[in-house]
Amino acid sequence: MKKILMACDLDNTLIHSYKKKKEGDVCIELIKGKEQGFINDSIREKMRRLNEKVIFVPITTRSIEQYLRIQWEQIAIPQYAVTTNGAILLDNGEKDPAWLVESDTILENYKDELSRILALLEQEDDYIRCRSVDGMYVFAYCKEGIEAEKKVRYYREKTTLDVISSGKKIYFLPGEFNKGYALQRLKKLIRPDYIIAAGDSEIDIPMLELADLALCKQEIADRVGNGNKRVFYDESSLVNTVMEL
Fold first, then answer.
1. Strand, helix or coil for residue 82
2. Is 134:140 a contact under the CB 8 Å cutoff?
3. Residues 85 and 190 grouped into a single domain
4. Which of 30, 86, 173, 200 ranks highest by number of CB atoms within 10 Å?
5. What would the pLDDT profile of 76-105 be if each residue is shown by its tens digit?
6. In a shared domain, residues 133 and 17
7. Are 87 and 181 contained in the same domain?
8. 135 torsion bin: left (phi>0), alpha (psi -120 to 50), beta (else)
9. Half-sphere exposure of residue 107, counting CA atoms within 13 Å on the CB side?
10. Would you give the DSSP letter of residue 145?
11. CB of 215 within 8 A of CB of 7?
């Protein structure tokens, strides 16, 4: 039997926010007691069965704290999760020390630039918040009326960091902290025979392009340079596609 790794983005791929909640959806994430993240109820049992077919590993830009808010016991608890856009591997909820040593070594080349960029962002009045995420990358959330893409174009000329936007969010990332490199590191650890990757945004493209099968949202399909790709529309169609393999 083939060992199949499924590397999966979370937000807007497998989980949706309260803003997109539909009748019958199940809350699997709370923030200060308020419902935040939801999943389609019809796929909860399918997710449990899916875990019998694949090694399911979330790969997310979320911080460790944000990831640990997810109530996986309602679905199926994954052993591994890669947070902070590839910088940190959690093994049963704990930081993997070997992975962290490699990430800290990478980070040494970017620490000064990350500090400089954060200081510049804090001088502007264009963001609801900007912060360092787990000490590994810098994040900014644009105020209403501020064009994130315009900010990305500006800062790409000002820094050696990778600058990527998703909606109103802007990420300033060390080059090696991307989901493609994270997938390469996972491949060495897990040694799968086949890799499936699923994602919905630009930040997911590096891992989608390295997978044997890329499952992507229509919005980025034209930008994914993988000859074996399929489009999914919501978490139900994503899980159904994998179950049918």
1. strand
2. no
3. yes
4. 86
5. 899 999 999 999 999 999 999 999 999 999
6. no
7. yes
8. left
9. 20
10. T
11. no
